[in-house]
Specification:
Two copies of one chain form a homodimer. By secondary structure, chain A is of the alpha+beta class. Chain A contains 13 helices and 28 strands. Chain A folds into three domains: about 280 residues, Spore Coat Polysaccharide Biosynthesis Protein SpsA, Chain A (Alpha-Beta Complex); about 60 residues, no CATH class; about 100 residues, Jelly Rolls. In chain A, helix 1 crosses helix 2 and helix 3 packs parallel to helix 8.
């Protein structure tokens, strides 16, 4: 197999609602650092660099996460790759892993066509929210899986369960001669079993036939497409007819409305007869809930995992996680406490799967704590709302070196800026004004303006907005280096 | 008894540490609104107006709470009194109720001397943190107690226990002919029993001899002083020799260092042979802990009391109290969650007495969340720190109509002010400048300045401080209408 015909796709569009309030729809868990210097998404990238030519690693994500995914990818590519461009396919909305995989196949086929490669590509599709302890063992398993994929199997990776986890899917396996011939480690997949009850899960753990479904797959493009055609023809049809450019792979909105919302497990894996499994022989964790985070964390002699500004008295088997304010706890048992700048979760450890229900409820009532953090990420940096009052709003705005905000005006508000770190270049009307640390400027209603940081140091300003309507949507953009006009 | 010779003293110096994080050393529970339009301190005042000439109601508090107590008292006196001046005795530090009561006796004797009243005054001493359901029943009990006090008894008020509370003190009573002669409702006090264990408390509830000690007392000045002389001579000696002016009753710091730190219960009530008790025949609650607050609160069908921005799923018998951010809870039982802008408490309901231990720990490590809220009260209004960064700090400052901050300068910081509500009069150097809503001004390091609000509307400004040292102590005051120069 030519190495330039193996591709990897990191599925990075999930909303990670069960890790709320740390994870938000617009800043989900895969883009967070969990127990590492890298985010989960970045770790997935680093793992794949061993197995795949780095310019063949791409990612599928939600259009709303595009700028964050690209900047995390850019950071990785600078560190680990020879030289590469970003390859991010963006979906207008999250629709499960089946459409995401189908779209990446279509995109990779287009790439190959442009490169005049006729051979069928092999694709490795992985989630962006796993923790895997051993990158070499992972690469070994990938090697075996590629052999099986070349023999036209759709290959999954199984993990030997060490506890009766009811939040994971299980795979029942069987020895099979034909599969063994392609890879000595390969096993036949007899059945996919979604989240079993505790008792059944325990039986699975005690048997040697069952593995956890890690959600990672390796397959030939044509094989997966023919299975999609067979079992999920709607996805097949939409993707087949989609106009995908290999240059700007954003999926047009209109085509996407009809797209079924379904995982590849339900769409293909539970039906296909072409499945094989390779055991992944190292620690693997799906960081799917606070209970899973507790599970991978090092606890103290009372079974507590404590993080941040916490004072505890006599709690047991609990996780207390503070990101901003002081948390004090007394006599808790089996409890998860997670605090962020705008929300607190206090949850019985047996109920962490239900955090999703809370998030759905918040979504229904349009509560912004479901969508974003108090700090909101933008292509140019981020801002935090500090204070809202009667006709005014205060923000702290952080602008990356080299970044600039769009040229804009507001119909309903004036703005007052004070530089508190670094130096700013401000467009006010038609004039450019340099603002040093401590200097301030007024921008009137309807006045065209832009905040820019052409310097090497980060820029921080405090903004006081004043007006009858103070809304992020009150913005008219004239020029924007991030294409948001 | 001449009505002008009955005095009431509201003991308002407590730090209310068991209601942290809502209660803080510099903003304790008695100055908070619990389930009423008035604070607990104000409710104590309103109750006493029925029994005592309003100009004879005074308060003892910590010097740090003086401005808050005075402003709460001023509000009450405007509403409920003919016309009166504030009568607040301030102690340099909290030293228990025995010194506070001794000092008020001394002060009242001085008042009487100035007024040429020779008769021994009757004094009603009450805590400032009780909830009492029926002000008329309270006045009835006071009437009976005054009769007993005139017959030289030190009178306590007992409450019939309706549950085996281990956080309260109990009183064992006995019928007594001589006491009945002075007041038909009077009973002899046989013993004070501090916080018993659960089993003993249950025995007390089942017997009809036991009452809760409500911590309210009525006595003749001379009788209490002679008991103090007998049982706590150190307090007696210090107070006897103290120079107390009836005009500015602040206790000099030096005298106070030697003052024993002891409650009147331990100092006198557990020893005195002159005790009588009057039953208080209405609901009485000591708002002494979160469990007590839960106890007085109306719960829903799952036994939960929920306040503020809370989303709960399946919790039971819990109290969830949010003052600023969203709190979400799943499957809690018997748990108290209290959130303020800078701290969260999550506590097993059986352990709410231990909140005090957490507060002591915070005090030891000089954690400011023990001392103040994020919002800090000042004689002229309040401020909230919004944001702290590298060499800068942002505050929102609220100035009451008619108030002004001192004329001051800072050695280490410059300040930038933006008016976001109302109008300001700013002294900058020697010049007065009027700042309208939206206008801003720069104040340099070492520049003399003052923020004033001589107008009828409240003033709100945003302040950006910049400098190498950003500390409340970096202030040189020249003039101050609150005597802080």
């Amino acid at each position: 197999m030519a190495v330039n015909n193996v591709y990897a796709v990191i599925l990075a569009g999930g909303s990670g609602s069960r890790l709320w309030p740390l994870s938000r729809e617009l800043h989900p868990k895969q883009l967070m650092k969990i127990e590492d210097d890298y985010t989960l998404f970045q770790s997935a990238f680093i793992r794949l660099v061993n197995s795949v030519d780095d310019k063949n690693i791409l990612s599928v994500t939600n259009v709303k996460l595009e700028s964050q995914v690209k900047s995390q990818l850019a950071e990785m590519q600078t560190k680990f790759c020879r030289k590469s461009s970003y390859r991010v396919i963006t979906e207008p909305e999250g629709k499960g892993t089946a459409p995401a995989i189908a779209l990446s196949i279509k995109y990779i086929e287009k790439l190959n066509k442009d490169k005049n490669i006729k051979e069928d590509p092999i694709i490795i599709a992985v989630p962006s929210d796993n923790l895997i302890s051993d990158n070499e063992k992972f690469a070994d398993a990938i090697k075996e899986a590629i052999k099986l994929a070349q023999a036209n199997y759709i290959v999954t990776f199984g993990v030997r369960p060490d506890r009766a986890d009811t939040g994971l899917g299980y795979i029942r396996t069987k020895r099979n001669k034909k599969i063994r011939e392609a890879s000595v480690k390969g096993l036949k997949v007899e059945e996919f079993i979604e989240k079993p009850d505790k008792e059944t899960a325990q039986e699975f753990v005690d048997s040697d036939k069952y593995y956890w479904n890690s959600g990672m797959f390796v397959f030939k493009a044509s094989v997966m497409m023919s299975e999609l055609k067979k079992y999920e023809p709607d996805i097949y049809d939409i993707v087949k007819n989609a106009e995908i450019s290999s240059q700007t792979p954003t999926i047009p909105y209109l085509d996407f409305e009809e797209m079924p919302d379904i995982s590849i497990d339900y769409a293909v894996m539970e039906n296909s007869k072409k499945l094989a499994m390779v055991p992944l022989e190292c620690d693997w964790r799906d960081v799917g809930s606070w209970e899973a985070i507790y599970d991978i964390s090092e606890t103290d002699e009372n079974g507590n995992y404590v993080m941040g500004n916490v004072v505890d008295l006599d709690s047991k088997n609990s996780m207390i996680y503070s990101t901003s304010k002081l948390i004090t706890t007394i006599g808790l048992e089996n409890t998860v406490v997670v605090e962020t700048e705008d929300a607190v979760l206090v949850c019985n450890r047996d109920r962490t799967q239900d955090v999703k229900k809370i998030v759905n409820h918040l979504k229904e009532r349009h509560d912004s704590t479901q969508l974003t953090h108090k700090t909101v990420y933008r292509p140019w940096g981020y801002y935090t709302v500090l204070n809202e009052g009667n006709g005014f709003l205060t923000k702290c705005i952080y602008v990356n070196p080299g970044a600039k905000l769009s040229v804009q005006l507001h119909h309903h508000r004036s703005e007052h800026w004070v530089v508190v770190e670094g130096k700013a270049l401000v467009l006010k009307g038609e004039e450019f004004i340099e603002l040093n640390n401590g200097e301030s400027i007024d921008l009137a209603i309807e006045e065209k303006h832009s905040l820019q940081n052409p310097y090497d140091e980060p820029l921080k300003i405090l903004e006081v907005q004043r007006g009858d309507i103070l809304d992020e949507n009150d913005i008219v953009r004239f020029e924007d280096m991030y294409g948001r006009v």
